[in-house]
Amino acid sequence: MTLTAGVVAVQGDVSEHATAIERAARAHGQDSEVLEIRESGVIPDCDVLLVPGGESTTISRLLQRTGMAEEVIAHVEAGKPMLATCAGLIVASMDAHDDRVETLNVLDVTVERNAFGRQKDSFEALLEVDGFEDPFPAVFIRAPVIDSVDDDVEVLASVDDRPVAVQQGPVVGTSFHPELTEDSRIHDLAFFETLAVEE
Question: How many domains does the chain have?
């Protein structure tokens, strides 16, 4: 059976995420098809879903305008895996502390945008991630930080005691860009490990 993975292609590193998904799928001996999603009607056919980085205000506006927002929420409510990275994490949250961002409320966290500074303050860090034997090489670009988490949310990794990777049910959210490295363990965790638990 071929895994159908959807990447919301409003903004962000769509091709890099597609490559990471395909790499993780191959490691599991799994065939995969990655769809770039720009309109409603595609998400319901996806086994797993990815909301990448970009500009959170733009992403949230387009998700709402196209009707994809409701489809993303239905995807999560059906227990299907989703990975939300950087701006995608902001959009997935309960509160972005910014009225311009209409959040999806699929992760019980609140998020502060650009908490690690602007583009010039981008940095890389070797993160200790729960369940990983070796540190993950995380790339932070205008990264948000998770400033509060609900009791149902598991913190997977932190920087200076601030959460930067979390999981709640089928949703994994990261402040960083896991697609900007050849290490696909975050995509593996979000999609294939979660699918294995579901099965």
Answer: 1
